[in-house]
Backbone:
């Protein structure tokens, strides 16, 4: 119980981190020249990350304008740390304002905020098609577009390899209509439907719904690449 509580207290908000770093930076400067206090901007008192960032940037500008102060290693170290935090928070703030960006999941336990890049490539890792979606979109839905774009690029598709995300019913049907083989482990929803756990029957877990894409002997596989912006 104590360990959980300690973990929660260690996790601080971005504004709190900036306040702590700027405070340590000011203290290190006061040890050298206390008169610098008169040149510093007024501290932010609002519960606003944007205003805290504005204050920190003003503070950084004032300090960097004094070459003598910046020459001290203990000041330079804390100044660099604050600059890095400001840059990171500014980037996160801009991304968070992106209305098109959405939260996606790399695994059941890990998530990200931003976009996904879905790519199709040959066995030699030559990219033949790519699409970009918001983070919450499923990988399998992009398969038809990747196939279409690859064909438009002059790729003759015989088979496509993908993971379980690509073995949804529409993709299996599209593979038959498109006369190419889809190789992907079948999703349990397709093999078992909405059965209850006690109704589950055994089946070969290595069975796959075929899909493989070749271009003159070159294997074209579909690999989803998650990119966080």
Residues:
């Amino acid at each position: 119980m104590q360990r959980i509580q300690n973990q929660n207290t260690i996790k601080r908000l971005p504004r709190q981190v900036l306040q702590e770093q700027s405070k340590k930076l000011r203290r290190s400067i006061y040890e050298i020249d206390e008169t610098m206090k008169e040149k510093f901007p007024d501290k932010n008192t609002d519960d606003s990350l944007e205003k805290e960032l504005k204050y920190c940037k003003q503070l950084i500008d004032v300090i960097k304008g004094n070459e003598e102060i910046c020459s001290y290693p203990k000041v330079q170290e804390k100044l660099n740390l604050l600059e890095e935090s400001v840059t990171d928070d500014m980037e996160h703030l801009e991304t968070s304002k992106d209305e098109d960006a959405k939260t996606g999941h790399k695994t059941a336990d890990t998530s990200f905020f931003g976009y996904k890049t879905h790519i199709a490539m040959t066995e030699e890792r030559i990219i033949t098609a790519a699409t970009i979606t918001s983070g919450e979109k499923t990988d399998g839905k992009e398969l038809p577009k990747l196939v279409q774009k690859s064909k438009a690029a002059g790729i003759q598709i015989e088979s496509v390899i993908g993971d379980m995300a690509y073995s949804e019913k529409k993709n299996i049907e599209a593979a038959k209509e498109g006369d190419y083989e889809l190789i992907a482990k079948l999703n349990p929803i397709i093999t078992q439907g909405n059965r209850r756990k006690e109704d589950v029957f055994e089946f070969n877990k290595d069975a796959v719904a075929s899909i493989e894409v070749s271009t003159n002997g070159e294997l074209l596989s579909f690999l989803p690449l998650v990119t966080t912006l």
User: Anything to note?
Assistant: The CA atoms of residues 94 and 124 lie 37 Å apart. Helices lie at 2-10, 14-30, 49-64, 67-70, 73-96, 143-152, 169-177, 188-192. The beta strands are 102-105, 111-122, 127-134, 159-161, 181-185, 208-215, 218-227.
